[in-house]
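Marked as duplicate of an earlier ticket. Keeping the data here for the record.
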Amino acid sequence: MKSRTFRRMFALFAQKQISEAPKIALLLLVLGLPAVAQKPTIQLIPFTSVFLPAEAACGFDVLATPQAGRPNKERLIQFNNTAIIAGPLFVTLKNLSTGKTINLNISGPTRIGFSGTTAQFLGPFVIPLPADVATAAGLPLLSLTHGRVVVTLDQQSNISSIQSATGTVQDVCQLLQ
């Protein structure tokens, strides 16, 4: 019943306020949007652990593991050129040379968008950078970032340069020393 009332009101509004050409364009748009829209794919991505060798990060080996007793139920929601990582993620990073650990809350949402050879990261994340890229951008090799980072990717999808970085950046290597 409410649906009919809305349709009638919309039809009356359309007759009085909109000329013929925009009516047709609006009708095509309203009818076409569901056909264009695709459902995203959603998958659970429980974090297990990640090992970063000394040469890839801090000059010492780093092990990232799920924080004991904390939630770890992130989901990857994929659209055409964008992915969203949402949900709780609590990580313990450990300097394997000294045993020093830090606990991080990098729960999402984190949005990752792709366009050609450009990727944009928005939200909280830990990102290891190649030494030449980090130096050129004035960023640490292993960064805890809350904000927006836009990068250029090479043909193998490796980060080749940083276009911009806004927000807060912490040096994870320094935190682990």
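See parent ticket for discussion. The mean pLDDT is 82.
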